[in-house]
Amino acid sequence: MKRIAIVYFSQTGSTASMARAVAQGAQQRDTEVLLYPIVGTDIIEGRFKSDALFDDLANMDAIVFGSPTYMGGPAAQFKAFADASSESWSNQLWHNKLAAGFTSGGSPCGEVQSTIESFYILATQHSMLWVGVDAPEGTSSKTFNRLNSSLGAIGMVDEKGQLDDIDIKTAKRLGERVASLTH
Question: Any alpha helices (H) in 67-131, and if so which ranges?
């Protein structure tokens, strides 16, 4: 069975909603999914610590990264995870695994694309293969991928802190695509 990990940080629940949507999409393709929310207790004196997670990630076929966008990049909690992945990098434990990413933010700009780009850079440093968003339903922003990101799924929260259903649909499709490309 294919195995995909979704490693993410969520402060308000929006990014967690996207993570669940990615998982739902992947599970449609007969895939085992590990959802790993980064929490405060994972970070000790500023450093992410979870040997068990890194052991699990070495045995995954794909890893999907997620974080809200803060100040033009991923949240510090996600960055702590990325920094702690250096041992996996030095041993090339993620070599040729598929990678993808998603983020949420509060405005259509807000440099949310920079967060996806940081995930892309992290993945390529690990010699992973990046999977972006395709457009199975065309390019109409009224039905799919309304913020038009090809690198990853982007969600924008409204004034009530809720994600648009189209953003959830795009995240779900990203999970489905990652699973369909996983061997």
Answer: 76-84, 86-90, 112-125
